[in-house]
């Protein structure tokens, strides 16, 4: 059996696949970065399991996270989203995706890409931590708290410090795989 982070020690294929191939893997594609920002915001107050089970529904409901389309959503479209049982039907969270799409497009214009902007918080290089146990992994950091302040200032919603840290983990800005996990970079180099 492969050693994984304790949170992924499950037989649920969605969780295992997410852990093994996405979590902690650097993402630079703007659309993927936007999708994860939206999904992390949707998670607020819920479990990641709730969101990952609905991820394909989110992609369908939100036009595969095409920010230009989302920024133009009408009240009629928003109402249909509030009635969509395939996603979390929280009015504020749904509205935040539209708000964030508009902020995302502004950032793309200003910085050339959202990737340039978001990765600047970690000097364009993933932070690789060396936690022995899952209990050591923080829920936020100075960087995620600062990122939260900046994102809010730049017009984003549902981007508190804890959400930002979770986002950083999800898009590989932070690698928090524990040392015994086969996905930790120190173990990957051993496998090669």
TrEMBL record:
One of its GO terms (molecular function) is metal ion binding. It comes from the Bacteria. Zn(2+) binds at residues 5, 19, 177, 181. InterPro entries: Adenine_glyco, DNA-3mA_glycosylase, DNA_glycosylase, Tag. Its EC number is 3.2.2.20. It catalyses: Hydrolysis of alkylated DNA, releasing 3-methyladenine. Signal peptide: none annotated. Keywords: DNA damage, DNA repair, Hydrolase, Metal-binding, Zinc. The keyword DNA damage applies. The keyword DNA damage applies. It is an enzyme of class 3 (hydrolase). One of its GO terms (biological process) is base-excision repair. Hydrolysis of the deoxyribose N-glycosidic bond to excise 3-methyladenine from the damaged DNA polymer formed by alkylation lesions. PANTHER family: DNA-3-METHYLADENINE GLYCOSYLASE 1, DNA-3-METHYLADENINE GLYCOSYLASE I. NCBIfam families: tag. This is DNA-3-methyladenine glycosylase I. It comes from Psychrobacillus lasiicapitis.
